[in-house]
Specification:
- Helices cover about 40% and strands about 25% of the residues.
- It folds into 3 domains: about 140 residues, no CATH class; about 325 residues, no CATH class; about 190 residues, 2-Layer Sandwich (Alpha-Beta Plaits).
- The chain is of the alpha+beta class and about 800 residues long.
- The strands form 11 sheets. Strands 32, 33, 34, 35, 36, 37, 38 and 39 form an 8-stranded mixed beta sheet that branches. Strands 3, 4, 5, 8, 9, 26 and 27 form a 7-stranded mixed beta sheet that branches. Strands 7-11-16-12-13 form a 5-stranded mixed beta sheet.
- About 35% of the residues are buried.
Length: about 800
């Protein structure tokens, strides 16, 4: 039974599933332990973005189009681009800082203050003082008067010098004190990207601004920017220690996000496990000695080191929001202290609301999913769809990053150019400076509750172009896409990990199943179709549901399992062909063997319509007595060879030799419609061949034979034991053929055929003579028998 089960498993129909499961484990392991498929998914994400439709355009007459705006783009995001018009108006970049003050005054000095912007973000650095100190005073006063200005901090991965650190961290502390930082953080913060340096705006700017945020993006492996780091970790060195100064009693304030770390030879900070134990300290000393460089001090500057030791840093972490997160929190009338942050899972802004500039009141936040359709006469064709949003839950990874749901290609600030987000020229506002008299101010600037984002929008004025899934894009527009993702509650959602694993499993196993059961050609068509269909479904779910479903691993896995199963089929089929040739080459003609390659016989027995042939030498005992054993063997070999070759020529299957008797059959292992005709012609041909042999032999060695033929359904197959089997035919019709061979003696004939065989050849030119109705042993019903004499058209095989 064990051998039988093992053989069944190796059958391609079953072993293909084993291969499928092995490939599933392989690809699952690759997805879990390597970044190969992650990199592919990044490229597929870019493709999904480029397949999205942002605008629907309908041509209504030559040269005129109507653009239907994507409802997934917030109407409250407006970019003020520092474009070529601005450069032409104000000269080369950077502008004098009073220009920025003019811009801010243009929005703060309007009569209807309820129509003010929600926030104004300056994507401009104010790290160094201006050459004209008076311009700094003018700008900081304008920032303070505006009261809604957000400025940015730039974070750096590398530590600063002590003097720089003291100055910049002091500047940053002003922003913390005024606007706050993120404290309510849960989850493992160890993988949040760490920054040990920063560049903060000048202190007067920090005091004047309403809010802040970091402007950093972290690129992927291919230098493309697909994510916004909503939570960043800014680490401040409180003190440095000799590693030998540490003991298990050394304390740090965990509630204030303090920690201990050392720097390896690659310049990477390694956090030390806390609380400290003797075991941890011993391992720490070993690690720093092997993997870090010692600090060498020469206190008297004589060129000889006075002290060498390994440094441990006592750090304090500050969790800083991105500028987009700060803008969104302010837009929803919340503060950083209202955020619920779980690293590796989500950031939630609870009970969000927005300011209705028409009613001048805060109201529940409503998102429009579909705009109403209106005909040319202003009639509503279909109602729009809106939803009230109570909470905004932002999915983030374990590094505090959010995938940006880009809404389209980069915008063009020129009039009539393509714009994903509306872009207006910086100069259009900064060149129109309102006076000090409120009565001369305009009533509104048509930016009620909008978030104004000011930034570079011309090539060459700043190093602010980054590669995105849509190609190069200015930094301020990347911020706009990230902010829009939050405001529109339009996040890219990674499906649960187990669902991706299940899809991988089903994709591979389905292909393995079908490839083992249909031909390689059709299975290739099916494989390509299923891979393509899977991609289309994933693209549709991305487009309409923002679902992120892995495709690369299932797609590649499906193709590889197809190749593996096809190769296994080729190998096993070649093995089967060799086995068939070895098994049946001795019994059947080469023509039949070749046909069997396309349809191998089943193991075991099966019923076939066959004709059974038995022949026997007459008076063989007497013949054997007249010859020596060697002469008898030589004579029999010559006779049996000639008779067997004749059987093969007529596409018969040799069953066995029974002493001097021959048993063979037609109709198996390959079905033959003319099995009775072939057997009859073979029998007559054997008599002709025997006459030729007898003419060469002396009278005492001449052979005479009798042949019996019977047609009917018999069981054909491999019979015997698993260790030794024989391909043979069995059944009542076999016994009748054997009896007919012996009847030749009574009727002095050479070939006796049954009525069933006669009925199949009587209309095919067979010449027969009816002999008798006989009752053979084991049968109650008489059997009519015939002598086969010849064929009208000869014995040729068609």
């Amino acid at each position: 039974m064990e051998g039988k089960n093992r053989g069944k498993i190796l059958n391609v129909k079953y072993f293909s599933l084993v291969l499928g499961f092995l490939f599933f484990l392989l690809f699952w392991g690759l997805t879990a332990s390597t970044s190969i498929f992650d990199h592919m998914e990044h490229k597929l994400l870019d493709l999904h973005f480029n397949l999205k439709t942002v605008f629907e355009q309908t041509r209504i007459q030559e040269g005129v189009t109507i653009e239907k705006r994507n409802p997934q783009i917030s109407p409250d995001i407006l970019i003020l681009g520092i474009d070529f018009n601005s450069l032409n108006a104000f000269g080369r970049w950077p502008f004098e800082r009073y220009r920025h003050a003019n811009l801010l005054d243009a929005f703060s000095r309007i009569q209807d203050q309820s129509q003010r912007e929600s926030a104004l973000f300056l994507d401009i650095f104010f790290i160094e003082p201006d050459n004209n100190a008076y311009d700094d005073v003018i700008l900081t006063e304008a920032i303070q008067e505006n009261g809604r200005v957000f400025i940015e901090t730039v974070l750096k991965r590398t530590p600063m010098s002590e003097n720089e650190a003291e100055e910049f961290f002091a500047r940053q502390q002003i922003l913390y004190d005024k606007y706050g930082e993120i404290h309510n953080i849960q989850g493992d913060t160890s993988r949040v990207i760490e920054y040990y340096g920063l560049q903060s705006p000048l202190k007067p700017y920090g005091r004047a601004a309403y809010g802040y945020g970091h402007a950093n993006f972290y690129d992927d492996y291919d230098k493309k920017y697909r994510r916004q780091q909503l939570i960043a970790k800014s680490s401040v060195v409180l003190k440095t220690l000799d590693v030998d100064e540490l003991s298990s009693s050394y304390s740090i304030d965990l509630e204030n996000q303090e920690r201990l770390a050392w720097v390896d030879k690659d310049g990477q900070f390694q956090t030390i496990e806390y609380p400290l134990t003797d075991k941890i300290l011993n391992q720490l000393k070993k690690d720093v000695q092997e993997n870090s460089a010692p600090r060498i001090e020469d206190s008297d500057n004589d060129g000889n080191p006075d002290k060498s030791y390994y440094v441990v840093y006592h750090l304090e972490d500050h969790f800083i929001p991105s500028i987009t997160l700060s803008l969104a929190v302010h837009y929803f009338n919340k503060s950083l202290s209202d955020l619920e942050v779980v690293i590796g899972d989500h950031i939630t802004i609870h009970d969000v609301e927005y300011f209705n500039s028409d009613s001048a009141q805060w109201e529940p936040y409503v998102i429009t999913d579909e705009f109403p359709e209106i005909d040319a006469e202003g009639n509503i064709i279909s109602e729009g769809k809106s939803r009230i949003v109570r909470d905004i839950t932002i999915p983030i990874d374990d590094r505090g990053q959010m995938l940006i749901n880009y809404m389209g290609t980069r915008s063009n600030s020129s009039r009539g150019g393509y714009q994903t987000f509306p872009v207006r020229s910086y100069s259009g506002y900064a060149s129109r400076v309102p006076g000090m008299d409120p009565t001369s101010w305009p009533r509104t600037k048509a930016v009620g509750n909008k978030i104004l984002m000011v930034g570079a929008f011309a090539q060459g004025i700043a190093d602010d172009e980054k590669t995105t899934p849509y190609g190069l894009m200015y930094g301020v527009e990347i911020h706009a896409n990230a902010l829009n993702t939050i405001l529109m509650d339009n996040f890219l959602i990674n499906i649960p990990y187990w669902v991706n694993v299940l899809i991988l499993f089903l994709s591979i196993m389905i292909i393995a199943f079908f490839t083992s059961r249909i031909g390689p050609g059709w299975s290739l068509v099916l494989t390509v179709f299923l891979i393509f269909a899977q991609f289309i479904v994933i693209s549709i779910l991305f487009e309409f549901k923002n679902l992120m479903i892995d495709f690369s691993a299932p797609g590649i896995g499906s193709f590889f399992i197809y190749i593996a199963v096809v190769l296994y089929r080729v190998i096993t089929e070649e093995s089967d062909k060799k086995r068939i040739k070895m098994m049946f080459g001795k019994y059947v003609s080469p023509v039949v063997v070749e046909k069997m390659m396309d349809k191998p016989p089943e193991l075991g027995g099966e019923d076939n319509d066959t004709t059974i042939f038995f022949s026997d030498i007459r008076s063989f005992t007497t013949l054997s007595e007249t010859m020596s054993p060697q002469e008898l063997v030589q004579l029999l070999n010559e006779y049996l060879t000639a008779m067997t070759d004749c059987v093969m020529e007529y596409r018969g299957t040799l069953d066995k030799y029974i002493g001097d008797a021959i048993m063979c059959f037609w109709g198996a292992p390959i079905p033959q419609e003319d099995h009775a005709l072939l057997s009859c012609k073979c029998s007559l041909k054997q008599l002709e061949i025997l006459n030729e042999l007898n003419s060469k032999w002396p009278p005492e060695k001449q052979i005479h034979i009798g042949i019996g033929l019977n047609s009917g359904v018999s069981t054909v197959g491999n019979m015997g034991s698993e260790g030794r089997m024989n391909y043979t035919v069995m059944g009542d019709n076999v016994n009748l053929a054997s009896r007919l061979e012996g009847i030749n003696k009574q009727y002095y004939t050479s070939i006796v055929i049954s009525e069933s065989t006669y009925n199949q050849v009587k209309d095919r030119g067979a010449i027969c003579r009816e002999l008798d109705d006989i009752r053979v042993k084991g049968k109650k019903k008489p059997v009519r028998i015939y002598e086969l004499v010849g064929f009208e058209e000869g014995l040729e095989v068609n």
